[in-house]
TrEMBL record:
Organism of origin: Aquibium carbonis
Record's keyword terms, sorted: DNA-binding
Range of residues in the leader sequence: none
UniProt protein name: TetR/AcrR family transcriptional regulator
GO molecular function, one term: DNA binding
InterPro entries: Homeodomain-like_sf, HTH-type_TetR-like_transc_reg, HTH_TetR, NicS_C, Tet_transcr_reg_TetR-rel_C_sf
Domain HTH tetR-type, first and last residues per copy: 21-81
Lineage top rank: taxon: Bacteria
DNA-binding region, residue intervals: 44-63
Amino acid sequence: MGEGIGSVEKAGRVGWKQDPEGVRSNIVAVAMAEFAQNGLSGARIDEIAAKTLTSKRMIYYYFGDKEGLYRTVLEEAYRKVRSGEQELDLEHLEPDAALARLVEFTFDHHSSNPDFIRIVMIENIHHGAYLEQSDLIATMNEGAIRKLEQICARGRAAGLFRPEIEPLELHWMISALSFFNVSNRPTFSRIFGAALFRPDGQKILRGHAVEMVMRFVMA
């Protein structure tokens, strides 16, 4: 048995040397699920290490401590959604089509990534303290507002959007419509039933979210 454990540990060390970024990504993915499930205070490094392809020692090597790992998880959660927005290539769409596509993407991303919603909820419990420590998150989210500023400017220039539309308020609206759909799913479905959270219900809600935003902005 000792020989088997030694072989696993050796394989872990080789993996770290050959693919350090892969090891780091594996830790972050496992940690995201742990933090989303148990929160910052409830998550345990021992539990995270046991589910990764590496060791507790390597977690501390990469991230310093549990709070450092949590900040990285928070950054990765925001990076993923902002990276997805960049891939939409909205600049080549008409402004109304670009905005509708962005709403669809946000609704779909949040619906299919409940851990992202839970991580954001957990960070709100901590009053945004760890988010505030990250310059990276601030930069990424500024990019999201700039994207909406560009869409709104093009929409106004084309006579499609009302001139008083504020991109930051628009971002708030899109986020609210998409966030509640996941954050309150357990309580809402237990009180009113789960029909809205089945595929057909989600398709309807997605369409209504787009319609509400577009009716709000159109001239």
